[in-house]
Amino acid sequence: MHLPLLFCLFLRLSGSSAISGPRAVRGVERGSLTVRCRYDPGYEHYVKWWCRGAAWENCPFVIKTTGSEKEVKKGRVSIRDNWKDRSFTVTMEELRLDDSDTYWCGIEIPGPDLGNPVEVTIDPAPTVLISTLATSNANMFTVAPKENQGQLPLLGSVHFLLLVFLKVPLLLGMLGAVLWVNRPLRSSGGNPEKNQ
């Protein structure tokens, strides 16, 4: 094999140093996630792409740019290039569990393309059971995260749930016990000696 061919094969299999991105990202079902891939100077006007599949040689393209900075949207996926920052972002929306896979962010160049693998993992959306005092039946709320900024909504927060369902009732129970123990004793007939 020729040395340049081996080098190109190495770039395809291991990822290129001319393009970089996160090794792995996580999203939540029904949310969205954004992957940002950076590239070296000189690649601004080239087509950028996002493909799905662990095997580079038969990784089908999910979406490509047009070689401009204009956003391209295809189904639940969009891609936008930013020449000034030398980066492009891929956004996947309305995530599904079966979106978990190996993806590649890449640059289309003459000869073998440049690429970087990204492992995408989609976690199930959290489900929270909330009982209300006003009604006897429990209401089930599915908490769908907003734009997956790495933060769970208030109802999905473990600390919030502990506060509402454990700490507050415990505190109220202790307060009630203290008030009950320290309650003033009622005297019968106004004679304090009968109460002793």
UniProtKB/TrEMBL annotation:
Transmembrane segment boundaries: 158-181
GO function terms (MF aspect): transmembrane signaling receptor activity
Primary site of residence: membrane
Signal sequence annotation: 1-18
Top-rank taxon: Eukaryota
Cellular component GO terms, alphabetical: plasma membrane
Keywords: Cell membrane, Disulfide bond, Immunity, Immunoglobulin domain, Membrane, Receptor, Signal, Transmembrane, Transmembrane helix
One Pfam family it belongs to: V-set
Residue span, Immunoglobulin domain: 22-123
Compartment list: Cell membrane
Membrane topology listed for this record: Single-pass type I membrane protein
GO biological process: immune system process
Similarity remark: Belongs to the CD300 family.
Name assigned to this protein: Immunoglobulin domain-containing protein
Native organism taxonomy: Eukaryota, Metazoa, Chordata, Craniata, Vertebrata
